[in-house]
Specification:
With 65 residues, this protein is mainly alpha-helical. 66% of the residues lie in helices and 0% in strands. The relative contact order is 0.06.
């Protein structure tokens, strides 16, 4: 027997509308516009470049380059 899900869908839409307009700022922000986002990106870049330089120097010392 088929279930009638129209009522559940209507309630879900009504609940979603209530949650969207509760007065809180729920917008997404670009992480590069915050200080912690910039710090994370710089740490990642320095770590990757440092890893490449370290691996190259290690290869030179061990004679594999």
């Amino acid at each position: 027997m088929a279930k009638n899900t129209t009522k559940n869908k209507a309630n879900h839409v009504a609940n979603r509308d209530l949650h969207e307009h509760d007065g809180k700022d729920r917008t997404l922000h670009n992480p590069l516009q915050t200080w912690w986002g910039k710090a994370v990106v710089w740490i990642m870049l320095i770590g990757m470049v440092g890893g490449i330089i370290f691996a190259f120097i290690f290869a030179l010392i061990s004679g594999n380059a």
